[in-house]
Amino acid sequence: MFLSIRDLYVNYGKFEVLKGVSMEIEEGKISLLLGANGSGKSTLLKTISGLNRPLSGSIWFQETRLNGMASYDILRLGVAQILEGRRIFPHMTVVENLELGAYSRRNKREIAREIEAMCERFPILGKKRKEQSSNLSGGEQQTLVIALALMTKAKLLLMDEPSQGLSPLLVNEVADTITGLNKDGLSIVLVEHNLRLGLSIADQVYVLENGKIAFDASSKDLSGVEYAQKIYLGG
Ligand SMILES: Nc1ncnc2c1ncn2[C@@H]1O[C@H](COP(=O)(O)OP(=O)(O)OP(=O)(O)O)[C@@H](O)[C@H]1O
Ligand SMILES: [Mg+2]
């Protein structure tokens, strides 16, 4: 299995958030993680990427047990996270941000070549490569966040609400970017409140409820959509 989570418990102090989460994620898929506000979606992604420590349970990525490893070692293995909100370094230029994405590697020429490739793949970044990144628009910043994550050479990308705060037009662009990355072989776990966007690009849907995965289905399975709507609309 590509990513395998078994009976995962995560607390904040005495507050129990994840209470026995188990899920299997296949390589090459876009997996959509749904759940009400506060259900623990961000907590789960942060636990996979090593930013949170679980109380018990295990997380396996290919042949490696991730829990217990430092977050930078998890990143080196190829599991990268895009956090909620846009995490770029606002006072640095586009290129400087991309260089940071390659921080764990040393070969300067190879890094420069990859930055060139990234600027071709996302022409808007190429055009604004020398701009301070705080001057980029919301959608451009989101593109930079994705490019930055790709610089880490991720195999699995964990994305927490990439469409947050974007206009409908830019939301479509983010969706296209995500499907494009997936076609190139990147596996993606997506947390997305925009149900229409999430369901339109996901292969598999997981619903987090009461600290567990309460539902898991193919996104083509309509009962998954109904279940998700029930959670979101409370109906
Ligand atoms: N660092 C923290 N310390 C204490 N409690 C936390 C911390 N982070 C999150 N929580 C709590 O844990 C619960 C789960 O939070 P989490 O951010 O994982 O939810 P979420 O599903 O991502 O919600 P949203 O959809 O609003 O982003 C919430 O009740 C939240 O208040
Ligand atoms: Mg969240």
3D structure, described in words:
- This protein folds into 2 domains: 3-78 and 154-233, P-loop containing nucleotide triphosphate hydrolases (Rossmann fold, 3-Layer(aba) Sandwich), CATH 3.40.50; 89-153, no CATH class.
- A 6-stranded mixed beta sheet has the order 6-7-8-3-9-10, sandwiched between helices. A 4-stranded antiparallel beta sheet has the order 2-1-4-5, covered by helices on one side.
- It is 39% helix and 26% strand.
- It is built from 9 helices and 10 strands.
- With 235 residues, it is of the alpha/beta class.
- The site of adenosine-5'-triphosphate has 11 residues, from β2 and α1.
Protein traits:
235 residues, alpha/beta, Rossmann fold, 2 domains, six-stranded mixed sheet, four-stranded antiparallel sheet, 39% helix, globular, binds adenosine-5'-triphosphate, binds magnesium ion
Briefly, what is this?
39% of the residues lie in helices and 26% in strands. By secondary structure, it is an alpha/beta fold.
CATH architecture term of the largest domain: 3-Layer(aba) Sandwich
Helix content: 25-40%
Number of helices: 9
Ligands bound here?
Answer: adenosine-5'-triphosphate, magnesium ion
Number of domains: 2
How far is the N terminus from the C terminus?
Answer: 35 Å
Low-confidence stretches: none
Number of strands: 10
Q: How would you spell out the order of helices and strands?
A: EEEHEEHEHHHHEHEHEEH
Arithmetic mean of pLDDT:
89
Structural class of the secondary elements? Answer: alpha/beta
Share of residues in strands: 25-35%
Largest sheet: 6 strands, mixed
The whole-angstrom Rg is 18 Å
